[in-house]
Amino acid sequence: MILAFYILGALAIIGGVITTGARNAVHAALGLVGTLLAVAGLFATMNAAFLAATQVIVYAGAIMVLFLFVIMMLNANAPVTAKDPLPFVRELAGIAGTLIAGAFVVIAYTYKDPRPLAEGAADVRGGTAQAVGETLLTRFLLPFEVVSVLLLVAVVGAVALVQRPAPQPDGFGGGAPPASHAGAELEREVQV
Amino acid sequence: MPDWLAAALITLLKSTVVIVALLTGFAYMTLVERVLLGRFQLRYGPNRVGPFALLQPLADAIKSIFKEDINVTLADKLVYTMAPIISVTFALVAFGGIPAGPAHSLFGENPWVYNLDAGLLVLLAMTSMGVYGIFLGGWASGSKYPMLGGLRSSAQMISYELSMGMSLLGVLMLVGSTNFQDIVYWQAHNGWLLLFQGLAFVIFFISAFAETNRAPFDLPEAEQELVAGFLTEYSAIKWALYQMAEYISMFTASAMMVTLFFGGWKGPQLLNAIIPGVSEWPIIWLIVKMAFFVFLFIWVKASILRIRYDQLMRLGWKLLLPLALFNTMLVAFYLAFVGGVQKVPGLYEYHKTGWGLWPLGLLSLLCLLAWLALGDRSRGLFNKAHPVRGEQASVARAGGD
Q1: Does B151 touch chain A (CB under 8 A)?
Q2: Which of A21, A171, B209, B307 has its CA 20 to 30 A from that of B254?
Q3: Class of residue A9 by CB neighbours under 10 A (exposed 0-12, middle 13-18, buried 19+)
Q4: Is the peptide bond before A169 cis (omega within 30 degrees of 0)?
Q5: Number of structural domains in chain A
Q6: Which of A56, A77, A155, A163 is most worth mutating to test chain B (most B CB atoms within 10 A of its CB)?
């Protein structure tokens, strides 16, 4: 188990390095997929099988595909060689990164279990869907529901942003003036 | 030899056997498909290489291995090579979780490569990773049509994954476990899940065709529009790897349908009167049941036309997903207020609560019949194109309202 931990941890870090270091945006996204898969593997070695499967289904299988979708559609895979638009952005990033890494080190060395490990392990019951679901829908019900409202807001926002103004037969409220017949033809062609 | 080493070696052996079996299955599947398609179209199909063309897969294999492996100049070399390998790897890994018999039944070993508590979820995860192979292959070819095919496939697979997963929620609520072996034993005691989840099965069945990119949903490689979609720039063994992935995911989809809705590896109990214990034999019943679904895949390919891309999207999002959600709600309300079965802790025994499960099966069947009967009249609800803006305005003017 400890060997699996080291291998998966190394893979996760390599994926992260590729994500930040790759010149090609698609390669960077693939590095992130690798990291997500390695983290899912880490969850699995910690007996959290449900979490591991969900991580792969949701993050690696759906969200990253959409990321790649956008990268490919916008043709953003060309290497970016232009100058940084902000002054000192690299230095600031370096300082922030060092601070975060330092914070992690401090946490790692001062961390104390809130309760004995055996007690916690008994509570999660092998990380099955049942245990996770029960905790989510009883103890963390409010945050869970609030998150779903947040997601709903995001969906509504996305739809509102991309939607064209609703067509109005009389030309009012539609944003654009009513199209003449030739205009309608043209517009249809543009949409095709 | 220490125990862990023996266990690791046995698992390695089992996975090798599964891989070899799947690849042989793939090779002969291509032959069976071509012969059957020939018969469906009133012609012979392959019949030259060896008796009954049995050596045809071998000839095909030799050809694709020794063919020149063309590298496209504009391709992203690394991803171009990786993509088919990703495809076939996840397709193979996904199959390993399907149980093929009771524990310790195969020469004292378990007839599965891995058996996880989250088995069903892991299998869904692995099939959802399969989209990367096609998607990246399309992108890495560095050419227009493969790119379009790849984009189509990713959108299609993500859309249908949703209705596929949602249709299984009812099954999970009834069984109360995501472990395949639990699902099989539940069905052995309470009857096939098809009886109680007919609607879910039909949704899953349709989604499975879209997930495996088979006709009538084989849009990522629609010849008339996209040359060959993501496969356009691939040749020789890389092309063959993609074919392998497609057929293996077809096997996996069949095995999933068998395990989730048709009793899994259990054979008919009444044969036990003739040969005692025959319904518990490993592997054979799974293969028999899978063969039926694999045949269905071919039959559908021969019978149903490819649908348009916008129709595909509307079918997935406006019909299958709402139906799957409805099914989930139906099962949830039924289990909460009407009845169900409860597992006796620690044993594979169940006792009835409330009205039992048969009314749910009846409800599910009624929904299915309503879907069939109302299909023609309700098609406008989900399969009508949004009118183009100018068009609707002119229609409204012409109507005078």
Answers
A1: yes
A2: B307
A3: middle
A4: no
A5: 2
A6: A56
pLDDT confidence band for A188 (50 / 70 / 90): very low
Please tell me chain A's helix, strand, coil percentages from 3-state DSSP, rounded to the nearest 5.
Answer: 75, 0, 25
Residues of B in contact with A18 (CB under 8 A): none
Q: Is B378 or B335 the better-scoring residue by pLDDT?
A: B335
Task: For residue B286, give the nearest of B87, B21, B107 by alpha carbon.
Answer: B21
Among B389, B391, B397, most A C-beta atoms within 10 A, so best to mutate, is: B389
What ipTM, to 2 d.p.?
Answer: 0.77
Taking CA–CA distances from A31, the nearest residue in chain B reads: B79
In a domain, A60, yes or no: yes
- Does residue A164 fall inside a structural domain? no
A vs B, Cβ pairs < 8 A, gives: 109
Q: Who contacts A52 (Cβ-Cβ below 8 Å, separation ≥6)?
A: A40, A41, A43, A44, B118, B122
Residue partners of B155: CB distance under 8 A and separation at least 6: A69, B313
Length reported for chain B? 401
- Cβ–Cβ gap B154/A60 under 8 Å: no
pTM, to two decimals: 0.82
**Mean confidence (pLDDT) of chain B:** 82
For A70-116, how does the pLDDT look when each residue is reduced to its tens digit (9 = 90+)? Answer: 887 776 655 555 666 677 788 888 899 999 999 999 998 888 777 77
CATH classification of the domain holding A66: 1.20.120.1200
Which residues in chain A are closer than 8 Å to B136, comparing Cβ atoms? 26, 30, 68
State residue A59's pLDDT score.
Answer: 87
Q: Does B345 touch chain A (CB under 8 A)?
A: no
Note whether B90 contacts A: Cβ–Cβ < 8 A: no
Of A143, A162, A179, which marks where a domain is finished? A143
Residues of chain B neighbouring A188 (CB-CB closer than 8 A): 388, 390-391
Asked whether residue A21 is assigned to any structural domain, the reply reads yes
Higher per-residue pLDDT: B224 or B400: B224
3-state secondary structure at position A87: coil
- Report the interhelical angle of A2-21 vs A25-45 (nearest 10°): 160
Give the pLDDT band of residue A183 (cuts 50, 70, 90).
very low
The string of pLDDT tens digits covering residues B214-250 is 878 887 777 777 777 788 888 888 888 888 888 998 9
Q: Are residues A98 and A123 in the same domain?
A: yes
A5/A75 same-domain check: yes
B394, B395, B397, B401: best to mutate for the A interface, most A CBs within 10 A? B394
**Main-chain dihedrals φ then ψ at residue B191, nearest 5 degrees:** 100, 155
pLDDT at position A186 is 45
Contact B212/B250 with Cβ under 8 angstroms?
Answer: yes
Q: Which of residues 123-182 of A touch B (CB under 8 A)?
A: 126, 128-130, 164, 167-169, 171, 174, 178-179, 181
